[in-house]
Amino acid sequence: MSEQIRPQSSDVVAVAKRKVVCDGPETGRHPRVFLEMNDGEKTVVCPYCSRVFQFAPNEVKKAAHS
Ligand SMILES: [Zn+2]
Predict the structure, then answer these.
(1) How far is the CA of 56 from the centre of ligand 1 (A)?
(2) Domain segments of the chain: what residues?
(3) How far is the CA of 44 from the centre of ligand 1 (A)?
(4) How far is CA 41 from CA 13, 14, 15, 19, 62, in A?
(5) How many angstroms is it from 62 CA to the middle of ligand 1?
(6) How far is the CA of 1 from the centre of ligand 1 (A)?
(7) How far is the CA of 29 from the centre of ligand 1 (A)?
(8) 0.70 exceeded by pTM
(9) Which of 18, 23, 39, 51 is disulfide-compatible with 32, CB 3.0–4.6 A?
(10) What is the pLDDT of residues 2-39, one digit of tens each?
């Protein structure tokens, strides 16, 4: 039986702003890049670490509240 490994590309990060800064996940830092979602888009993918940033201000608020 092989262990299930979650690919990094499936990582989704909820953000409250359309402009995000990414310098990589804890497991693999990369040079800091600025990413911006276009009007009407709710996700942007980091070209370095393939993480997906999703515009979800409600989720971010919930997480910060708990
Ligand atoms: Zn990144």
Answers:
(1) 18
(2) 8-65
(3) 10
(4) 15, 14, 13, 12, 22
(5) 23
(6) 31
(7) 8
(8) yes
(9) 23
(10) 666 555 446 899 999 999 999 999 889 999 999 999 99
pLDDT of residue 8: 47
pLDDT, one tens digit per residue, over 36-56 is: 999 999 999 999 999 999 999
Cα end-to-end distance, the chain, whole Å:
37
Q: How many A from CA of 40 to the centre of ligand 1?
A: 22
What CATH number should be reported for the domain whose range is 8-65?
2.60.260.40
Question: Distance between CA atoms of 52 and 4, rounded to whole angstroms?
Answer: 20
